[in-house]
Amino acid sequence: MTPQRFDLAVIGASFAGLACARAAARAGLRVAVVEKKSSSGDKLHTTGIIVKDAIDTIPWLQQVPAALVRQVDGVRLYSPNLRHVDLHAPGYYFWATDTPALLDWMCASVQADGVTLLAGTLFESAARDSAGGWSVSVKSVASQEQAVLQAGYLVGADGPHSRVAKALGLSLNTQFLFGIEQEYGQARLDANLLHCFIDRKLAPGYIGWAVAGVGIQQIGLARRLSPSGLPPKQAWMDSFTARIAPHVDVGDAAPLATRAGMIPCGGVLKRVSDARVMLVGDAAGMVSPVTAGGIHTALEHGDAVGGAVAAFLRAGAADGSDPADPLRGLVRNYPTFRAKRTLRWLFDHFQADWIFNLALDTEPMRQAARMVYFHRRGKPK
Fold first, then answer.
1. Residue from 110, 162, 357 nearest 277 by CA
2. Gyration radius of the chain's alpha carbons
3. Distance between CA atoms of 100 and 264, rounded to whole angstroms?
4. Which residues, including other chains, have CB under 8 Å from residue 108's CB and lie 6 or more apart?
5. Domains of the chain
6. Helix, strand, or coil here: 301?
7. Measuring CA to CA, which residue among 270, 310, 320, 339 is closest to residue 28?
8. Which of 12, 84, 120, 344 has its CA 20 to 30 A from that of 158?
C-alpha cells in the first residue's frame, strides 16, 4: 500500500478543521482533510448562530453567500415565569445560518484552494514515522478499504469525542451539556430576535432557545448532564414547546428534523498537543462554558493553527518553533475561559428560578445579559 503524502492531515471537516486546512493550503502546504461523514453538513449538533464579532474579524465569513445566512438583530430573554426583556447593542447582530449548506460551501471553498477532502473516511490511528511526522491509518466508511496518509503534521478537529485525542493519549472532554434541537417549517415568533428561555426544571445549567433560521424555525433545549440521566428526548421537547407556546408557537406541526448531541462545557483541555500534533475546536474543549458558543473560536484558532503549522514546516524543526509546544508555541494562546468557567460553576450550583423572576427587569441583570450576548458591545458607555 503506497501512502498518500501530505504536509498536513486535518481530522474532521468541522469549522475549526476547515479553517485550519484553508490557512495551511493558502500558505502553500499540501493538505488533506479526513471526514467520516459523506458530507460535512450531515448530522450536525450545532444551531449555527454566528456572532457579530466573528463576522467582523474573520475575512472568510465575509465571502459567505447571502442565501446561507439571515440577520437577527437582538435577544429576547425570558425568565422562568415567561416575562421577558429585549436586549440590543448598537450595530450588533447575529447570523442564523443554513449550517449544513454553510459547511458544504466551506468544503467546496477549501477544495478550490487545493485541499484534498477525503469524505466518508474514518480516522483509525496514527504513529510517528522516521522523520518525526505521522503515518495516519484511515478507512473508507462505505467499502472498509484501508489507506495510509503520510503527513508532516496532524491536527485533530474531530469533535467533542475526538478519536485523535483518544488514539494519541491527549486530554478528552469530560464535562458536557446535552442539547436537542428541532426544525419546523413554520412557527409564530418574532423573527428579528433570538429567543432565550431560562427554566431550571427544563434546562438546568443552560437555556432553551428559538430562532427564525434560513427557511426554517429552530427550537432547542440544552441542560447539564446529571447522574439521573435525561428524560426521553421527545417528551422533553414536547414539554418545552408547550411551555413557550404563548411566545413561540408551532401549533400542531411536526418537526421536520431533529438533531441532538453533547456540547463540551469544561473549557479548553489540559493537554491538547504533543510534538507535531494539536487539537482545535470542540476536540480541544474550545467552547464557551457559559454560552456553549464555539464557532467563532473554532474559526479563529483553526486559522491560526493552519498558519502556524505552515510557518513551522517551512522553517523546519531546528528553530524549535513547533506551535504545539505548550510553553512557547501557539497552543499557549488558546482561550482559558477563566471568567466563564467561574460563571459556569455559579450557574451549575446556584441557578434558581425565583432569582431570575425577580431580577429580570433590573438594570444589573440587563447589563449582565448584554455582556453575555454582545461581549464588548454590551459594556455600558
1. 162
2. 21
3. 21
4. none
5. 4-36+120-174+266-338 (3.50.50.60), 50-97+176-264+351-378 (3.30.9.10)
6. helix
7. 310
8. 344
